[in-house]
Amino acid sequence: MPPRSRPGIAGWQAAQRRRKTRAQRNVSHRRRPVRSGNDAAVPRHGLARVLSKQGVCSRSEAARWILAGRVRVDGRVVRDPEFPVVQGRQRIGVDDDAVVAGERTWLMLNKPRGLVTTTSDEQGRDTVYRCLGDADLPWLAPVGRLDKASEGLLLFSNDPAWAARITDPATGPDKTYHVQIDRLPDAALLARLLAGVVSGDTTLSAKSVKALRQGEKNAWLEIVLEEGRNRQIRRLLAAFDIQVLRLVRVAIGDLELGDLSKGHWRRLTAAEAASLASPPS
User: Fold this and answer.
1) pLDDT in tens, 131-148
2) Choice among 80, 121, 147, 174 that is catalytic
3) Dist. CA 251–CA 208, nearest whole Å
4) Whole-model pTM?
5) Which residue has the higher pLDDT, 49 or 9?
6) Based on the number of CB atoms within 10 Å of its own CB, is 86 exposed (0-12), middle (13-18) or buried (19 or more)?
């Protein structure tokens, strides 16, 4: 009987999508515990996930390393990205080098239009990583997203726990956008935008909407969201037959884009990072 071939990265990614679908259907999966002597049960996590949680690389990149035989656990080569390990209890190495958690880094980028927010793009489009260039930075992942046509403040970090707090719809900070539209809004339109609309099984609304300035045929609005669903502002405005000419995220919580030049980035201070991750009062 011929040996079974190991799944490649595409197979692993497909398996991850199936797991995510099951989770969205509220199917519970218990973590397999490890017992050592009299220790209480300790949760284990997949090897690829542990590498990404340590800020070493993305989860998909970790899976590639593992499938290529570059990763060892307690001195043994492991080729299963879901191989269960206890973070901090087992020795993990890549290319014979011990894995050390990367220094926590947080930065903000003024994203230009035309770039996609992803680590790599299957269609070969330019990504936001073009702006980071050859900077001496650890591996960083985008925290939240801006679509290709949008611009402005985009966060990056290798701190998954911090990123989860920022993107949590219940406790994350507000996001503020300046949006140029193709008409002159009156008070009634602003009130309808604030009230929102139902799209399918989703209510699209904003925390606040106000007019900033206007010309002869178009105007700029300031829209604040408590949570950012996929293309939420564009979908909300489209429901009222309003075309978006430009969409710029200018603030996340108290962190403002300020005078940071387009395509440029800067590191956040520890105080700025902590403030963003603090629950709103």
Assistant:
1) 998 788 888 889 999 999
2) 147
3) 14
4) 0.74
5) 49
6) middle
